[in-house]
């Protein structure tokens, strides 16, 4: 039973919102399992396992050494405990670090050679690994004009990439889109130059573990001046039991390029929690722009808190060049425990970072998520819009940092985070860190309505908008802030999310 | 593990030569149990999350750093206000300089006398609120104060106390290291205003425990230092009953290091608790930290945190504030604002305005802003013929106004406004 069926909702909260939250987080639709023969590495992690993963991917020695040095460091550090989440101790030696479908032993030469069982899995998830004009399977997407709606998909199944679509067509444009294991083999110079430069192996406990044992993930390189001709996406599926998924994504947008990248993820229903510790690194050079969108829908566990994915993820974008731009959009509905702070390092002058997030936690879910905006360059801008919704007995925390360094003159940040509680057994928390080290920058956290320009507000109100709409329009330049930032492919989620209103929010 | 051991060793070294004052059995027990808390928690270091923005090393060091005496040419604060004066010189009660401690609707006893008395109401308060306030964050320096404090006052208000009680902290010795602990118990329906003024000592640890019973009212106005080299760590632990009022305001002028912690627990329905602060800091050696923790554990209560900081020439301002709304504390109205006005490019403002909410029918808002003086407003004033320096003063005072409005006693507020204006004029 869904914990929300019996809950008494306080006055002032929109019924549509309650229904939408129920719809999004109530019945987990992706909880089935694919029966397929798997090859596992022995349980646990040690230098042999690290070497084994490296050799399975045919990696050169420098890569193996890189992993081993990360592993040596990981053994010396302790798990962080500062997040507002609690979960039983993870036994890191009781997890499989590598699981590959037997049929993937020989890498398929093309999508036609991929095990039909795997293809069927993605078909069922709504992500058919076929090259077609529209991305079928996404409810509501059929209505979209077919022209220009191509999406290239890299499908990751447990520890390995199953296949990548549209590679040829992307190649023509000069875009490299492949699994990271393939990139290490075919483009070692690029991987060597960029890997670990945004999230160094020493970054944090889970990033260090990931650096040692990551098995696959996606790699994107967009050459100077190229506008990537289609959306790129990676779909992560955990299928095997007692397996951890450790994927690594590296995206490089060279000078003046543009790419939009989507990420989706699901896992079967199981009673035992599973670990997912990913690292995403994005390098944005001068005048380049990257949009990164996530719909995180890992299995959240049942209403008693059994099972579910522990989602401990490090995501960071580095705006290296002037006028670089990055935008994170996330819709977080899954996972038993989430620990995730997609961040922006605004190094180049006039660079921009944006973070839009909707986090919905129901039943026993715990989410501790937010962002870091580190302003280093002059005239840099960042905007944070975070909406957290808790229902059932869930705990939802926004944790963020806005840092204005002494040299980041004339920079600007605006942060808005709203929380909504549905029921009286859940919690909503906000933990922002604000560090301002120069006076020409302006930082506003959760500015109240009165901070918004009264004239503009008046103009909107006069045109018949209600106050919330007007504020959203004035402050963010558009309505339904987070949703607008979502790419078309998340049409279904977006439709449901449109129903969500943060009216009656607690803080 | 290694860290925990380092901390334990440092704490043991610091406590090695500390001997606790002697008094009645209950008092000795309270001190010993506080000392246990200190040992258990360990003294804070810069590596603790709770001390992320303020380095406590000079507060925990065995010896206090020297602070030159500061001669104030302005005359004593609140001189024109009729008040009951209780004077401490470098942390020691001065009976000669103090007024007669008797008055209607109140009982005032020197802490050392109360602690030597076998049966005293102070037993139920001394170190009790401090110990409660150690969760969820450890405030070891408060426990250390409870263990070591030798002087202070215990005040019981039984009716409406007619004039403010002013604790005046004088500083006369460049190396003084004072530890004071005050208790205030406001009985049901009683009302009292406590005023604290003066730089106190080269290093000052001060703790105030306040129990406001149902329907009681406690007003607190404090002015710390003035261009003084002092270092201070102060704590206020308060428990606020039903329909009760708690209001505290602190104005801080300079100071090498000031950490003011305020821990409020609202336990009765329909209560009001406000805590506000304004500080003005000039220079790289100014560091001011307001750390506030408000817990709502009752229905239909209102809390406000209003903190404003004016910083220049490399000064540092810190705000760590939290509103915790416990399960069932419905209809809570929690407000928190922390703002800084950075008058130049070297100063910095570090803030962590937190909310933790476990009830669904509440309204909590928190805001934090930081920026320079509004050039448009400056231009407007100048176009009206106001000189640039005066215009800046005016805008700065306007910025601080919201915090000063938290003072109910107009005579006290007016005097503080004048002092602020004087400070701003001197520190152009």
Account of the 3D structure:
The complex is a heterodimer of chains A (507) and B (428). With 507 residues, chain A is α/β, with parallel strands linked by helices. Chain A has one domain (3-446, 477-498). Helices cover 21% and strands 31% of the residues of chain A. Chain A is built from twelve helices and 24 strands. Chain A has a ten-stranded mixed sheet with strand order 4-3-7-9-12-14-17-20-22-24. Chain B is an alpha/beta fold and 428 residues long. Chain B is 23% helix and 37% strand. Chain B has nine helices and 19 strands. In chain B, strands 2-1-5-7-9-11-13-15-17-19 form a ten-stranded mixed sheet, covered by helices on one side. A nine-stranded mixed sheet of chain B has the order 3-4-6-8-10-12-14-16-18. In chain B, helix 7 packs across helix 8 (388-404). The radius of gyration of chain B is 21 Å and the shape is globular. The A-B interface holds A 10-11, 82, 84, 406, 409, 419, 421-448, 451, 506-507 and B 49, 323, 325, 327-328, 330, 334, 340, 342-372. Strand 23 of chain A pairs antiparallel with strand 18 of chain B, so a sheet runs across the interface.
């Amino acid at each position: 039973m869904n914990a929300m069926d019996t809950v008494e909702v306080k006055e002032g909260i929109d019924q549509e919102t309650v229904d939408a939250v129920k719809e999004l987080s109530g019945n987990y639709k992706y909880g089935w399992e694919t029966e397929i023969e798997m090859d596992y590495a022995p349980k646990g992690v040690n230098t042999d396992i690290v070497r084994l993963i490296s050799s399975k991917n045919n990696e050169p020695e420098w890569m193996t050494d890189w992993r081993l040095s990360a592993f040596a460091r990981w053994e010396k550090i302790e798990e962080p405990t500062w997040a507002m989440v609690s979960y039983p101790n993870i036994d890191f030696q009781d997890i499989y670090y590598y699981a590959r479908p037997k049929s993937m032993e020989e890498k398929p030469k093309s999508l036609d050679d991929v095990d039909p069982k795997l293809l069927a899995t993605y078909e069922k998830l709504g992500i058919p690994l076929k090259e077609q004009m529209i991305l079928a399977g996404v409810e509501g997407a059929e209505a979209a004009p077919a022209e220009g709606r191509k999406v290239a998909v890299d499908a990751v199944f447990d520890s390995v990439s199953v296949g990548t679509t549209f590679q040829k067509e992307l190649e023509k444009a000069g875009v490299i889109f492949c699994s990271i294991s393939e990139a290490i083999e075919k483009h070692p110079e690029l991987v060597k130059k960029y890997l670990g430069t945004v999230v160094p192996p020493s970054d944090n406990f889970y990033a260090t573990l990931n650096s040692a044992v990551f098995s696959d993930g996606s790699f994107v390189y967009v050459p100077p001046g190229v506008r990537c001709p289609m959306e790129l996406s990676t779909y992560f599926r955990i299928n095997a039991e007692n397996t951890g998924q450790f994927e690594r994504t590296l995206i490089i947008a060279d000078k003046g390029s543009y790419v939009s990248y989507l990420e989706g993820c699901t896992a079967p229903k199981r009673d035992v929690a599973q670990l997912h510790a990913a690292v995403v690194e994005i390098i944005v050079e001068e005048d380049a722009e990257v949009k990164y969108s996530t719909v995180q829908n890992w299995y959240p566990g049942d209403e008693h808190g059994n099972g579910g994915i522990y989602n401990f993820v490090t995501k960071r974008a580095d705006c290296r060049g002037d006028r670089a731009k990055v935008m994170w959009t996330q819709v977080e509905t899954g996972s038993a425990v989430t620990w995730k702070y997609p961040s922006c390092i605004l190094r180049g002058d006039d660079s921009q970072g944006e973070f839009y997030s909707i986090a919905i936690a129901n039943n026993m879910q715990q989410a501790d998520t937010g962002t870091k905006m580190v302003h280093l360059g002059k005239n840099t801008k960042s905007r944070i819009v975070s909406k957290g919704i808790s229902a059932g007995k869930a705990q939802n925390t926004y944790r963020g940092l806005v840092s204005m360094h002494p040299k980041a003159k004339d920079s600007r940040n605006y942060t808005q985070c709203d929380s909504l509680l549905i029921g009286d057994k859940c919690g909503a928390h906000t933990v922002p860190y604000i560090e301002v080290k120069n006076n020409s920058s302006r930082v506003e956290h959760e500015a109240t309505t009165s901070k918004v320009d009264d004239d503009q507000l008046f103009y909107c109100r006069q045109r018949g908008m209600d106050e919330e709409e007007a504020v959203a329009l004035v402050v963010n330049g558009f309505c339904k802030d987070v949703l607008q930032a979502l790419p078309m492919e998340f049409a279904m989620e977006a439709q449901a999310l449109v129903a969500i209103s943060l009216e009656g929010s607690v803080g | 593990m290694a860290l925990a051991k380092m901390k334990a060793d440092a704490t043991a070294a610091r406590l090695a030569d500390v001997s606790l004052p002697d008094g009645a059995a209950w008092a000795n027990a309270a001190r010993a149990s506080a000392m246990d808390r200190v040992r258990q928690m360990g003294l804070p270091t810069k590596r603790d999350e709770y001390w992320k923005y303020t380095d406590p090393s000079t507060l925990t060091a065995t010896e206090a750093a020297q602070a030159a005496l500061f001669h104030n040419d302005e005359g004593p604060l609140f001189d024109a206000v009729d008040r009951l004066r209780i004077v401490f010189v470098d942390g020691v009660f001065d009976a000669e300089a103090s007024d007669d401690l008797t008055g209607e609707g109140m009982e005032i006893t020197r802490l050392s006398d109360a602690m030597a008395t076998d049966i005293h109401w102070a037993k139920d308060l001394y170190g009790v609120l401090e110990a409660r306030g150690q969760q969820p964050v450890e405030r070891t320096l408060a426990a250390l104060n409870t263990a070591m404090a030798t002087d202070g006052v215990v005040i019981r208000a039984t009716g409406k106390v007619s004039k403010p009680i002013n604790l005046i902290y004088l500083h006369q010795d460049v190396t003084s290291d004072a530890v004071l602990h005050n208790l205030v118990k406001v009985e049901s329906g009683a009302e009292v205003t406590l005023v604290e003024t003066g730089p106190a000592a080269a290093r000052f640890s001060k703790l105030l425990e306040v129990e406001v019973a149902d329907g009681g009212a406690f007003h607190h106005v404090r002015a710390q230092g003035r261009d003084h080299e002092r270092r201070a760590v102060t704590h206020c632990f308060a428990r606020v009953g039903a329909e009760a009022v708690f209001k505290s305001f602190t104005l801080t002028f300079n100071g090498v290091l000031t950490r003011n912690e305020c821990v409020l627990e609202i336990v009765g329905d329909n209560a009001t608790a406000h805590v506000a602060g304004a500080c003005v800091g000039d220079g790289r050696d100014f560091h001011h930290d307001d750390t506030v923790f408000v817990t709502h554990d009752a229905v239909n209560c209102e809390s406000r945190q209003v903190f404003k900081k004016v910083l220049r020439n490399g000064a540092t301002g810190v705000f760590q504030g939290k509103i915790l709304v416990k399960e069932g504390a419905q209809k809570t109205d929690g407000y928190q604002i922390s703002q800084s006005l950075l008058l130049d490019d070297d100063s910095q403002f570090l803030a962590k305005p937190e909310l933790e909410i476990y009830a669904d029918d509440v309204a909590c808002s928190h805001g934090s802003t930081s920026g320079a003086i509004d050039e448009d407003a400056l231009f407007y004033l100048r176009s009206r013929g106001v000189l640039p320096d005066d215009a800046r003063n005016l805008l700065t005072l306007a910025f601080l106004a919201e915090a000063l409005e938290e003072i109910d006693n107009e005579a006290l507020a007016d005097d503080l406004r004048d002092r602020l204006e004087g400070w701003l004029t001197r520190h152009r």
